[in-house]
Specification:
single chain, mainly alpha, elongated
Length: about 100
Protein backbone atom coordinates (compact mmCIF):
# COMPACT_ATOMS: atom_id res chain seq x y z
CA UNK A 1 0.00 0.00 0.00
CA UNK A 2 1.38 3.37 -0.96
CA UNK A 3 1.65 6.45 1.24
CA UNK A 4 -0.93 8.35 -0.80
CA UNK A 5 -3.46 5.51 -0.47
CA UNK A 6 -2.88 5.32 3.30
CA UNK A 7 -3.30 9.09 3.65
CA UNK A 8 -6.55 8.94 1.66
CA UNK A 9 -7.86 6.17 3.91
CA UNK A 10 -6.95 8.03 7.12
CA UNK A 11 -8.50 11.28 5.88
CA UNK A 12 -11.65 9.38 4.98
CA UNK A 13 -12.20 8.09 8.52
CA UNK A 14 -15.44 9.18 10.20
CA UNK A 15 -15.28 11.80 13.00
CA UNK A 16 -16.10 9.24 15.68
CA UNK A 17 -13.10 7.07 14.88
CA UNK A 18 -10.29 6.83 17.43
CA UNK A 19 -7.70 8.09 14.95
CA UNK A 20 -9.72 11.21 14.16
CA UNK A 21 -10.33 11.96 17.86
CA UNK A 22 -6.64 11.50 18.65
CA UNK A 23 -5.72 14.03 16.00
CA UNK A 24 -8.54 16.56 16.43
CA UNK A 25 -9.70 16.12 20.02
CA UNK A 26 -13.43 15.94 20.46
CA UNK A 27 -15.96 14.58 18.06
CA UNK A 28 -19.10 16.41 16.98
CA UNK A 29 -21.18 15.09 19.89
CA UNK A 30 -18.80 16.30 22.56
CA UNK A 31 -18.49 19.72 20.95
CA UNK A 32 -22.28 20.07 20.67
CA UNK A 33 -22.73 19.04 24.31
CA UNK A 34 -20.15 21.57 25.50
CA UNK A 35 -21.81 24.31 23.43
CA UNK A 36 -25.23 23.30 24.77
CA UNK A 37 -24.02 23.60 28.37
CA UNK A 38 -22.45 27.00 27.74
CA UNK A 39 -25.58 28.32 26.02
CA UNK A 40 -27.85 26.97 28.77
CA UNK A 41 -25.72 28.78 31.31
CA UNK A 42 -25.91 31.99 29.26
CA UNK A 43 -29.72 31.75 29.03
CA UNK A 44 -29.96 31.12 32.77
CA UNK A 45 -27.82 34.16 33.50
CA UNK A 46 -29.87 36.33 31.13
CA UNK A 47 -33.11 35.16 32.73
CA UNK A 48 -31.77 35.80 36.23
CA UNK A 49 -30.78 39.35 35.27
CA UNK A 50 -34.14 39.92 33.60
CA UNK A 51 -35.95 38.89 36.77
CA UNK A 52 -33.80 41.22 38.86
CA UNK A 53 -31.47 38.65 40.38
CA UNK A 54 -27.76 39.00 40.86
CA UNK A 55 -25.55 36.90 38.66
CA UNK A 56 -22.46 35.68 40.46
CA UNK A 57 -19.28 34.21 39.10
CA UNK A 58 -18.00 33.89 35.58
CA UNK A 59 -20.01 32.45 32.71
CA UNK A 60 -19.47 28.76 32.12
CA UNK A 61 -16.66 28.07 29.67
CA UNK A 62 -15.74 24.47 28.97
CA UNK A 63 -12.13 24.02 27.97
CA UNK A 64 -11.75 22.33 24.60
CA UNK A 65 -8.92 19.91 23.83
CA UNK A 66 -5.82 21.77 22.75
CA UNK A 67 -6.85 25.07 24.36
CA UNK A 68 -4.70 26.72 26.95
CA UNK A 69 -6.29 27.73 30.21
CA UNK A 70 -6.92 31.47 30.22
CA UNK A 71 -5.35 32.31 33.55
CA UNK A 72 -4.55 29.99 36.34
CA UNK A 73 -6.43 31.07 39.42
CA UNK A 74 -4.09 32.10 42.21
CA UNK A 75 -3.35 29.21 44.49
CA UNK A 76 -4.59 29.56 48.02
CA UNK A 77 -1.97 29.49 50.74
CA UNK A 78 -1.42 26.11 52.36
CA UNK A 79 -3.66 25.27 55.28
CA UNK A 80 -1.91 25.62 58.61
CA UNK A 81 -2.27 22.49 60.75
CA UNK A 82 0.33 23.15 63.45
CA UNK A 83 -1.56 23.88 66.73
CA UNK A 84 1.21 26.21 67.96
CA UNK A 85 1.13 28.28 64.77
CA UNK A 86 -2.67 28.52 64.97
CA UNK A 87 -2.45 29.61 68.62
CA UNK A 88 0.12 32.30 67.72
CA UNK A 89 -2.18 33.55 64.92
CA UNK A 90 -4.98 34.09 67.43
CA UNK A 91 -2.63 35.65 69.97
CA UNK A 92 -2.92 32.74 72.38
CA UNK A 93 -0.14 31.14 74.32
CA UNK A 94 1.27 28.17 72.44
CA UNK A 95 1.13 24.83 74.16
CA UNK A 96 4.55 23.45 74.97
CA UNK A 97 3.80 19.82 74.38
CA UNK A 98 1.87 19.20 77.59
CA UNK A 99 -0.39 16.21 77.60
CA UNK A 100 1.61 14.38 74.97
CA UNK A 101 3.19 11.02 75.63
Amino acid sequence: MGVRRLLALVRGLPPDSATWRQEHGWGHQEELLASLLELTDAWGRALAQLLGGRVQGKPLRIQRPGEQREQAEPESPPVETDPNAIARFFGLKARGGEGRA
